[in-house]
Amino acid sequence: MKVIPGESSSGGLAAPEEPSPSNFPATGTKELQNASASVRFVSYNIHSGIGADRRHDVSRIARALDECDAAVVALQEVDVGRRRTDFAHQANHIGQELGMHVHFHPALEIEDEDYGDAILTKMPSRLMKAGLLPGLKHRPRLEPRGAIWVEIEIGGQAIQVINTHLGLNRRERMAQVEELLGERWLGSPLCRDPVVLLGDFNALPRSTVFARLAGALTDARRTAPEGRSPATFPSRFPLLRLDHVFTRGAVTVRSLAVPRTPLTRAASDHLPLVVELEFDPGTKTSTHVPDRRPA
Questions:
Q1: Quick check: is 238 in a domain?
Q2: What are the φ and ψ backbone dihedral angles of 93, each rounded to 5 degrees?
Q3: What's the average model confidence in pLDDT over 237-258?
Q4: For 39-82, how does the pLDDT look when each residue is reduced to its tens digit (9 = 90+)?
Q5: Name one GO biological process term (predicted).
């Protein structure tokens, strides 16, 4: 795993660099100090910063995210040090432009080139777990898939955030979902409510994979005031809802939207999924505890 802001080479958490206050949303700083305030999350498959026009421009992704004005960002298909995208560390590039802490996990490592998932946040955070999800033994050439779990602190309350990108094969996806629901991830004693699971699940709402997740967690779309979630793929003419947000615990969905602007339609092959969540203050738990993480 690469050394990135907020992470040490040993996998433990180093003291993250503070983002410049000028990069925070004008209305966001005070709201983030209040656990009952709503917090905006974004899940975005950035397609390695290669847009619908086949042009590589990771700054365009950052601008699209800036328009979303989120405090927590989950990215999939992130390139780090890859020749095809000019050897950029895309997660760090976006994090620097948005003034956010960065946690990155490579699902695929080829020599010095990495490709995977990231969580960016404006709140105090620590990496809890990052790892690969199971594939199919008889299909070893399937693209490796992974997940990353970060604990963030909002007004003294610990929120567990897991970002993932599931495979293209149905059996593979089901195995990956069972792993995520098991004792190493969502079933871990350390994965206490409230929990937000989001990402590109490559699963339609009527699929068995989606039903398994929706049976164990709450699909944010079901409780959103809008009552529906627009499609996220492909970005130019979206037909499929592949990107989802699930919650567990005392979480209220205040809004859910898929921005369709000239910028978001061009920046990637997916559209960003934006959800506003409110967490019941309940019992506040600080994240500044001994560094215990699941195996």
A1: yes
A2: -60, -50
A3: 97
A4: 999 999 999 999 999 999 999 999 999 999 999 999 999 999 89
A5: GPI anchor biosynthetic process
Rounded mean pLDDT, 174-203 = 98
Angle, alpha carbons 222-45-94 (nearest 5°)? 120
The domain spanning residue 129 has which CATH number?
3.60.10.10
- Long-range contacts of the stretch 128-132 (C-beta < 8 A, 24+): 128/160, 128/190, 128/191, 128/293, 128/294, 129/184, 129/185, 129/188, 129/293, 129/294, 130/1, 130/103, 130/105, 131/105, 131/184, 132/107
Q: What is the pLDDT of residue 111?
A: 84
For residue 3, which phi and psi values (nearest 5 degrees)? -80, 125
Q: Which residues of 17-35 are buried (b: 16+ CB within 10 A; e: fewer)?
A: eebeeeebeeebeebbeeb
**276 forms bridges with which residues in the sheet?**
40, 255
DSSP helix/strand/coil, 244: strand
Q: How far is CA 206 from CA 108, 198, 203, 241, in A?
A: 29, 17, 8, 10
- Tokens 């080479």 sit on residue: 9
Asked whether residue 15 is assigned to any structural domain, the reply reads no
- The amino acid sitting at 85 is T
Q: What are the strands, taking DSSP E only, across 155-230?
A: 157-165, 195-200, 218-219
CA dist., res. 77 & res. 51, Å (int): 12
In a domain, 233, yes or no: yes
Per-residue tokens: 17: 């660099």
CA–CA dist 231, 255 (Å, integer) = 16
| Tally of domains in the chain | 1
Tokens 């800036």 correspond to: 66
For residue 2, tell me if it sits in a domain.
no
Tokens 């910028």 identify what position?
263
Per the structure, the complete domain to which residue 133 belongs is given by: 37-279
State the virtual CA torsion across 165, 117, 222, 281 in degrees, nearest 10. 140
